[in-house]
Amino acid sequence: MSSSASDTAPPRRPAQARRFAVASVTAGVVVLIDQASKAAALSELSETDRIPLLGDVLGPQLAFNPGAILGLGSGATWLLTLLGVAATVVLFIAALRARTEWWAAGIGFILGGALGNVIDRLLAPPGFGRGYVTDFLAYGNWFIGNLADVALGIGVLILAIGVWGSHRATTRSDASAHLGSNSSVGGL
């Protein structure tokens, strides 16, 4: 009876499925909250009046963004839609391949934020694939965003902390290995 490498390797499918579920549930919750908040903004807010929450620093005000961040690319909404759809496909694949739950959660936040804005681009006026993203969180006079944008930021922050933590752990283990090898040499 011969044993192959696949017989001795630990099963990874349940862990991969769990990580994909973390990413999927996170993305789904982000999309639901984002779309519900945009629906509330459409029904309750005005494009001309801002409601001050933190003085002039933060307040809800309705806006429609045909472009990307800070309105860049507003003349190429269809291109932004294609890029958004491509990004969601890449993020979906990344979610399938996530190696840790933290990584899966970060990808889930980014995927949910991307999907929230792609839904607007696909379904909102002025037409399919040319829709404007509904924004309603006014940050002073700098820009107006939405909860999908917040989720994108949270996801990037989670991934950055994960990379930083992984780098620190690797650096510490490398330093420990280096110290261990030096101490054994010094004892000769």
Automatic annotation (TrEMBL):
<keyword id="KW-0449">Lipoprotein</keyword>
<keyword id="KW-0645">Protease</keyword>
<dbReference type="InterPro" id="IPR001872">
    <property type="entry name" value="Peptidase_A8"/>
</dbReference>
<dbReference type="GO" id="GO:0005886">
    <property type="term" value="C:plasma membrane"/>
</dbReference>
<keyword id="KW-0378">Hydrolase</keyword>
<comment type="function">
    <text>This protein specifically catalyzes the removal of signal peptides from prolipoproteins.</text>
</comment>
<comment type="similarity">
    <text>Belongs to the peptidase A8 family.</text>
</comment>
<dbReference type="GO" id="GO:0004190">
    <property type="term" value="F:aspartic-type endopeptidase activity"/>
</dbReference>
<feature type="transmembrane region" description="Helical">
    <location>
        <begin position="139"/>
        <end position="164"/>
    </location>
</feature>
<keyword id="KW-1133">Transmembrane helix</keyword>
<keyword id="KW-0472">Membrane</keyword>
<feature type="transmembrane region" description="Helical">
    <location>
        <begin position="63"/>
        <end position="95"/>
    </location>
</feature>
<feature type="active site">
    <location>
        <position position="135"/>
    </location>
</feature>
<comment type="pathway">
    <text>Protein modification; lipoprotein biosynthesis (signal peptide cleavage).</text>
</comment>
<keyword id="KW-0064">Aspartyl protease</keyword>
<feature type="transmembrane region" description="Helical">
    <location>
        <begin position="102"/>
        <end position="119"/>
    </location>
</feature>
<keyword id="KW-0812">Transmembrane</keyword>
<keyword id="KW-1003">Cell membrane</keyword>
<dbReference type="Pfam" id="PF01252">
    <property type="entry name" value="Peptidase_A8"/>
</dbReference>
<dbReference type="GO" id="GO:0006508">
    <property type="term" value="P:proteolysis"/>
</dbReference>
<feature type="active site">
    <location>
        <position position="149"/>
    </location>
</feature>
<protein>
    <recommendedName>
        <fullName>Lipoprotein signal peptidase</fullName>
        <ecNumber>3.4.23.36</ecNumber>
    </recommendedName>
</protein>
